[in-house]
Amino acid sequence: MGDNKIVLKDLKSIYEHKVGLIYIDPPYNRGDDFIFYKDSQKHDEWIEKMKTVIVEMKGFLKEDGSIWISIDDSEMAYLKVCCDSIFGRENFVSTIVWQKRNTRENRKIFSNNHEYILIYAKDIKKFKKKRNLLPATQELLNRYKNPDNDPRGPWQSVTLSVQAGHAVESQFYSIESPTGKIHNPPKGRCWIYNEERMQQEISNNNIWFGSDGNGVPRLKKLLVNTKLGIVPETLWDSNFAGTTKDAKKELLDLNIYDEDIFDTPKPEQLLYRIIQIATNKDDLILDCFLGSGTTAAVAHKLGRDYIGIDIDERTFKYACERLKKVCQGENGGISNEVQWSGGDNYQVCKWN
Ligand SMILES: C[S@@+](CC[C@H](N)C(=O)[O-])C[C@H]1O[C@@H](n2cnc3c(N)ncnc32)[C@H](O)[C@@H]1O
User: Is any atom of ligand 1 closer than 6 Å to the C-beta of 269?
Assistant: First the structure.
């Protein structure tokens, strides 16, 4: 517990270049005062503070590390420019739009249903190699079938032709199907292989002419040779990443708050997605605006090491209570999905 500006300075000598993921969810400076913290500062002071802490945090990142920052419309544009200057525009990865609520807010001019997550890499090329795909959905797996009882297992067929823009002559020829039907590439397209390679693929049982042996030839993409997964998208709806309401319910269900619960928690699903995409098992995770402790709780359930910092004693006390419950195997949030049943431990430090 402590002011991140001070704590980070003290931790730097130990954790410089050691952190795989930084997630922060700072006060957004929207002029509200919440029960647990104030969220109204002069814009210049807010952005200056953010700049100082982000510069400090950058030094903690590993070469393939990334920082993810939750923010809303009030300061998003200014924070983006600030982060561009710290990380370099070339290291900007993406902006996620997260659907934080799925009900309409009728009192406002527009019902404000989303927030952003700004993502920067320490080094975009290294992060690109590290970025994990999301697990394949059942829908994706269902596309792999085995109509010809291929001993190598299920497969799906994909097109054998590509746009002819950069084609060479050897990619234009006719293919004869097992039934004798002649197939030419569609207009404006060519085959992906030359004729010799195509014949090899046909004799290796890698080309599918349909169940009647008469259809347009297609390539068999075997499940066993496929790195299955889904490239993450930038639009995260509430089914995928939860809502603020889900987050509050997660806190309520823990039964640790003996007064009002923390005002602005993030749902465990949201952190689950971020940690899935941005880290591997050996990555250390840092959140220096810890709040109710969502980042720490999810990191713990996913077997990652983590550091969480919060300036507010009361907030921090509840975050520690939450972690205690996590260690005991509480079954809320993502627990069922990741089969969390408890274990491991955490240490608490107070800076002064
Ligand atoms: C929006 S909340 C974070 C919520 C969190 N993501 C969650 O899921 O509960 C922001 C937190 O930052 C903390 N904070 C603000 N200024 C800070 C500082 N200088 N050092 C450490 N924590 C700070 C506040 O006490 C508050 O708990």
Answer: no
Given a cut of 80, whether residue 247 has pLDDT beyond it is yes
In terms of domains, do 108 and 221 share one? Answer: no
Q: State CA 65 to chain mean position distance.
A: 13
What confidence score (pLDDT) does residue 258 get? 83
Given pLDDT bands bounded at 50, 70 and 90, which one contains residue 321?
Answer: very high
For the cut 80, the answer to whether the pLDDT of residue 352 exceeds it is no
For a pocket test of ligand 1, which of 70, 79, 290, 306 has the largest count of ligand atoms closer than 8 A to its C-beta? Answer: 290
Residue from 310, 320, 351 whose mutation best tests the ligand 1 pocket (most atoms within 8 A of CB): 310
For the CA atoms of the chain, what is the radius of gyration? 26
pLDDT of residue 32: 85
Distances (CA, A) of 297 to 68, 134, 232, 333: 17, 20, 23, 9
Residue 283: which CATH number?
Answer: 3.40.50.150
Domain membership of residue 266 as a residue range: 4-134+231-328
Domain-located, residue 349: no
Alpha-helical (H) ranges within 302-346 are 313-328
Indicate the pLDDT class of residue 276, thresholds 50, 70 and 90.
Answer: very high
> 305-308 and 284-287 as β-strands: parallel, antiparallel, unpaired?
parallel
Instruction: State the Cα–Cα distance between residues 189 and 164, nearest whole angstrom.
Output: 4
Q: How far apart are CA 288 and CA 18, in angstroms?
A: 15
236 lines ligand 1 (CB under 6 A): no
**Which tokens in the block code for residue 94?**
């993406």
Domain end among 179, 200, 225: 225
- d(C-alpha 304, C-alpha 307), whole Å: 10
What pLDDT score does 260 carry? Answer: 87
Cβ distance 56 to 8 under 8 Å?
yes
Residue 308 C-alpha to ligand 1 middle, in angstroms? 10
Kindly report, residue by residue over 36-72, the tens digit of the pLDDT. 888 999 999 999 999 999 999 999 999 999 999 999 9
H-run or E-run covering 157 = strand 155-159
